[in-house]
């Protein structure tokens, strides 16, 4: 456990060092993000094959090596694995470069972390705070949910097309993501949410939070019905598998949702800022509905990444320096506590390093 806290400290220390360098702010942010994600990439991409990865991914990678290209679209006749065709084809292509399973981890880690780098570089006004939250909440899970995090990466690559209002390119990227992990279909409405700006006021916030509770049971029934038709996803309806949903995190998201609504009230928001706020609202609904229901927990990941932008945007909306310092300190303390609780409970079972001595 100490290894992970030390890595986080080193990343923050480098961020502090970069902040005092005599260079433009944009360059400081870029230098910090490059260092942070390259550092995380080494730890994730070159981890031991024995840890932080479902053996299913390794077995599938090895098995695709002997499927003939002429039959790749009929891979299900050769393999007993449940997967999407796009992911199987990707494994086949990677096998042309190397049949070492380590290359699968190297490739997926590179794609996912690069997408996150691009996302935070263009959308976060406080990259060091965003990286801190990313490290605590999302980074560890990407070790063993490879397919979905690859789909999340493609959704992040599609996000600029939402801002550019380029439906054609957005649709192409989303179709490719769908061939990797069908659950990414829940991200498609983001394109159409962009132009519908929500007016921030206390009445709306209260109504929205009330709707979260009211829609929980309805959404569960809808998802149970619809995901039963998607290949390989019926198993998620009953099993207690890994996910990102619990009521504790729902309360955390609600707290930051309310904070942003309060500080952004009567202030000029960009459409991009308002979109991330709406995404966090959807994440709250999915998080609450996903408590004890793994399918919703997994869907929540596509929208929960908005927290990496909403928290820095909340700080930006604050007028007083003492308020900003207090809010950032509280946020970091809260997530450090969450990280500690996760390690104490079960995270030690899936991370690839036990201590600073590996």
Succession of helices and strands:
HHHHHHHHHHHHHHH
What is the number of beta strands? 0
Structural class: mainly alpha
Count up the helices.
Answer: 15
Distance between the termini: 10 Å
Give the proportion of residues in helices: 55-70%
How big is the Rg? 20 Å
Estimate the strand proportion: under 5%
Uncertain spans: 237-245, 353-358
Let me know the average pLDDT: 82
Described by strand count, sense and barrel closure, the largest sheet is: none
Morphology call: globular
How is this structure best described in words?
The chain is mainly α and 358 residues long. The chain has helices spanning 2-19, 25-45, 55-63, 85-97, 102-123, 127-139, 146-164, 167-178, 190-193, 202-226, 247-263, 271-289, 294-304, 307-317, 321-345. The model is unreliable at 237-245 and 353-358 (pLDDT under 50).
Any descriptors?
single chain; 358 residues; mainly alpha; disordered C terminus
Please summarize what this structure is.
This protein is mainly alpha-helical.
Topology (SSEs and partners):
Elements lengths: L1 H18 L5 H21 L9 H9 L21 H13 L4 H22 L3 H13 L6 H19 L2 H12 L11 H4 L8 H25 L20 H17 L7 H19 L4 H11 L2 H11 L3 H25 L13
Helix pairs in contact: 1-2, 2-5, 5-7, 6-14, 6-15, 7-8, 10-12, 11-12, 11-14, 12-13, 12-14
